[in-house]
Amino acid sequence: MRSPSPLLLAVFAGLLALLGAVPAARAVVPAPSAAPSTNGAASVPLASRSLPSPMNATNTCASCHATLTDTKLRTPAKEYAHSAHRDDRIGCVGCHHGDPRDPTVGAHAKSMGFEPHPTHVEVPQICGGCHSDAAFIRRLNGRLPVGQAALFTLSLHGKLTAAGDGVAPDCSTCHGKHDIQPPSSPLSPVNRTNVAKLCSGCHADKQKMAGYDIRTDQFEKWKKSVHGQAFAAGNPNAPTCTSCHGAHASTPPDAASVAHACGRCHETEMQLFEQSPHSQGFRRRGLAACVACHSNHDVARASAIMVGTGPDATCMKCHNNDEKPRRVADEISNLLRGARERAADARAAVARATTAGLRVSGAPYSLDQVATAETKVRSVVHTLDPARVQAVVSDIESAADETQRLVQSAERNRRLERRGYYAALGLGALLLLALSLKAMDLDRRRRQGGS
Ligand code: HEC
Ligand code: HEC
Ligand code: HEC
Ligand code: HEC
Ligand code: HEC
Ligand code: HEC
Ligand code: HEC
Ligand code: HEC
Ligand code: HEC
Fold first, then answer.
1. Number of domains the chain contains
2. CB 247 less than 6 A from any atom of ligand 7
3. CA dihedral 236, 238, 241, 242 (to 10 degrees)
4. How far away, in angstroms, is 251 Cα from ligand 6 center?
5. Is the pLDDT reported for residue 36 higher than 80?
6. Which of 168, 191, 214 is the C-terminal boundary of a domain?
7. Helices assigned H by DSSP within 141-253
8. Residues 6+ away with beta carbon under 8 Å from 393
């Protein structure tokens, strides 16, 4: 094969240089003014480095590094080959810069911004440089959302990282460096099934968090909560850390937004809560909507015991001396207790009948209606409106009454059947008696006639 003429190569190289210069004009990373590189490699400031051009689909870095014997040098190339970034239009230069067309160590050209060791402070700027650039990302993956870096920058994680705090996570603490996978992959540390482990790697580590005024019990509590247990049981709707905190914002939902964090999944409760006097009242006092009664990490199964004026009632945490709320708590509590008893009686009646071998037709349906209304009343409690609770309680009661009626009518039928059976039995016995008397009479006469 004939090799191309040097002139042609020069023209081609010039063209490439020109194309490479275009993306530089739309660099999006703000200049890291407060982030001087510690290793002195940043002779070219981050902001003026260009994103790799789509023409850079050569990656001599990977080809050479894959052949090196030093594992520290070879492993990145091996991992990269199976990572989300394996497209050579991203390349090693996507993060390290340098010259991806130079097959020699000249590729490590400082003049092209080569950065062998991106620092903790630089990483979010490097990742964010691409992941904030919708045009660039769209060219390679039209479905990938952008904007993670903007959220991250506003979070406490991002602020601490930018200030050089070594404990706070940067992008690669959570995603990895060379082996970055899409979150959908079970191999990714940010995959839904791995997130709690990732977050608790820091947040449950007392030593790591010792320098901060923050609790370290979130993971333990979550694991034991109704949510953690549903999660462990494989419920795909159960929340893990990021369901409530977000992945990149990672802020605790504040008092004003917590209802929405919970309401993403508990929409009915959120809407009913918003119709209650608590909606305004909590806002005025800066109380966190759902968390004030259910807590945040150790959410337990809810029960009617929470309502009332007894020592265990949640209402009394705040209303020990408030006249109207005490009255409302009592009223709702009594309604709930009444409904619970009626429902329990109805279930017991059906159970008794079933044990006695009675088939109560219609009972499964009416018990279903009891259960549906019971589910409904548990959410209607959030309105704090005794009249609305009363309306659903009436539904429970009428379905329970209907169940009782069905049981009674089945029992009555059984009694009637029994009465008929005994009457027939009695009649049969009488007939038998009459017949045997007659037979004895005939027998006697025959013997008398014979003698
Ligand atoms: C011809 C083979 C070759 C090519 C091409 C090459 N490298 Fe290297 N690279 C090496 C060798 C050998 C070392 C270790 C010695 C050194 O630092 O020069 C190294 C070191 C590095 C290091 C620093 C490792 C450390 O711990 O200090 C990084 C990062 C790196 N290369 C990335 C790249 C990138 C990015 C490219 C492409 C722009 C590239 N390399 C191209 C062979 C190569
Ligand atoms: C998504 C960004 C990204 C890409 C793409 C990337 N690297 Fe890295 N690389 C990093 C980061 C971050 C570090 C960590 C710097 C440090 O801690 O010293 C690193 C470190 C390294 C090191 C030093 C390893 C060590 O243990 O000291 C080598 C060598 C290296 N990269 C080579 C490569 C090669 C070769 C490629 C392409 C096959 C590549 N990298 C692609 C982000 C990247
Ligand atoms: C040079 C641009 C560039 C840089 C720098 C870069 N990425 Fe990416 N990244 C991309 C592109 C483009 C994709 C989509 C690749 C594809 O789907 O083919 C991607 C994919 C990903 C994915 C997989 C997303 C998915 O759902 O498929 C994650 C996670 C990711 N990058 C995180 C990072 C992190 C963390 C860093 C920094 C350590 C980083 N990226 C640096 C361009 C970049
Ligand atoms: C505290 C851990 C954490 C940090 C730090 C982090 N991410 Fe993520 N990232 C996640 C999680 C978890 C997901 C999975 C998606 C989700 O749960 O919303 C994700 C998803 C992604 C995705 C896939 C697309 C998407 O939005 O779902 C990209 C791209 C990404 N992150 C880039 C970045 C970049 C860039 C940075 C740094 C600026 C960064 N991440 C920092 C945890 C983190
Ligand atoms: C590498 C360690 C590390 C990892 C991993 C990590 N965090 Fe953090 N996180 C911190 C540090 C450090 C703070 C700052 C604590 C402080 O200042 O009170 C923090 C703070 C927080 C805060 C409080 C923010 C605020 O505004 O008060 C939340 C919420 C949080 N992290 C959630 C998460 C979630 C969710 C994950 C997993 C997706 C996670 N973190 C992963 C280290 C980590
Ligand atoms: C059901 C939603 C939910 C889940 C799941 C959840 N959190 Fe939280 N988290 C919250 C709320 C709400 C707050 C705010 C606390 C408040 O205002 O009472 C919070 C606060 C925090 C804080 C700040 C310090 C504190 O304890 O108040 C950290 C750190 C935190 N969560 C980490 C985690 C981690 C790690 C996980 C996963 C193991 C997790 N969270 C799971 C809702 C949740
Ligand atoms: C990602 C969805 C999701 C989010 C966000 C969420 N939950 Fe849940 N929650 C669930 C699921 C699923 C269950 C059901 C678990 C089961 O029944 O096994 C549940 C159960 C509950 C229960 C117990 C229900 C019962 O039958 O007694 C309460 C109380 C609760 N959540 C409150 C909250 C609060 C408060 C928040 C916000 C701090 C919240 N949830 C955020 C999905 C979510
Ligand atoms: C004033 C205290 C209080 C507040 C505030 C509160 N709840 Fe409840 N919640 C209760 C009580 C009491 C029950 C149990 C009622 C029962 O079982 O009879 C309950 C039950 C629940 C249940 C289980 C029953 C069902 O409807 O499935 C969920 C889920 C729930 N609440 C979510 C939320 C959410 C989400 C918020 C915030 C929008 C919230 N709660 C605010 C007291 C409260
Ligand atoms: C975390 C504290 C807290 C808990 C727990 C709580 N409340 Fe309240 N409640 C408030 C606040 C704050 C207001 C608004 C009072 C105000 O702004 O004057 C309020 C208002 C009310 C009102 C309206 C009072 C009026 O004057 O119109 C009723 C009724 C009420 N609560 C009933 C209940 C019941 C029933 C429970 C238990 C299921 C309960 N509350 C639990 C804090 C709480």
1. 2
2. no
3. 50
4. 8
5. no
6. 191
7. 148-154, 156-162, 171-175, 195-203, 218-224, 226-232, 241-245
8. 335, 336, 338, 339, 373, 377
Q: Does 55 have pLDDT greater than 80? A: no
Q: Is 377 in the pocket of ligand 5 (CB under 6 A)?
A: no
Q: Is residue 70 part of a domain?
A: yes
Structure confidence at residue 252 (pLDDT): 78
- Between the CA of 186 and the centroid of ligand 3 the distance, in Å, is 17
Question: Which tokens is 375 given?
Answer: 């589910």
C-beta of residue 297 within 8 angstroms of C-beta of residue 222: yes
- In this predicted structure, the answer to whether residue 12 has a pLDDT above a threshold of 50 is no
Tell me the ligand closest to 141's alpha carbon.
3
The pLDDT tens digits for 172-215 are 999 999 999 999 999 999 999 999 999 999 999 999 999 999 99
User: If you measure from the C-alpha of residue 148 to the centroid of ligand 4, how many angstroms do you get, rounded to a whole number?
Assistant: 6
Residue 318, C-beta contacts closer than 8 angstroms, at least 6 positions apart: 292, 325
Query: Which of 158, 191, 224 is the C-terminal boundary of a domain?
Result: 191
Q: 186 and 330 share a domain?
A: no
Query: What is the percent of the chain where pLDDT is above 90?
Result: 75
Entry pTM: 0.89
Element (H, E) at 281: helix 277-285
Query: Residue 303 and residue 139: Cα distance in Å, rounded?
Result: 52
Q: Which domain holds residue 412?
A: 325-450
| Ligand 4 pocket, mutate which of 171, 181, 208 (most atoms under 8 A from CB) | 171
* Cα 171 to ligand 7 centroid, rounded to whole Å: 29
Atom of ligand 1 nearest to the CA of 115: 29
**145 located within any domain:** yes
Q: At what angle do helices 363-380 and 386-450 cross, to 10 degrees?
A: 160
Is 445 domain-assigned? yes
Give the whole-angstrom CA distance, residue 222 versus residue 231. 10
Task: Assess if residue 280 is contained within a domain.
Answer: no
What confidence tens digit (pLDDT) does each residue in 91-107 have? 999 999 999 999 999 99
Q: What is the mean pLDDT of residues 428-450?
A: 85
Q: Under 8 Å CB-to-CB from 270, ≥6 apart: which residues?
A: 259, 260, 262, 263, 289, 290
Cα–ligand 3 centroid distance for 84 (angstroms)? 6
- Nearest C-alpha to atom 1 of ligand 1 is from which residue? 104
Question: What is the Cα–Cα distance from 112 to 3, expressed in whole angstroms?
Answer: 27
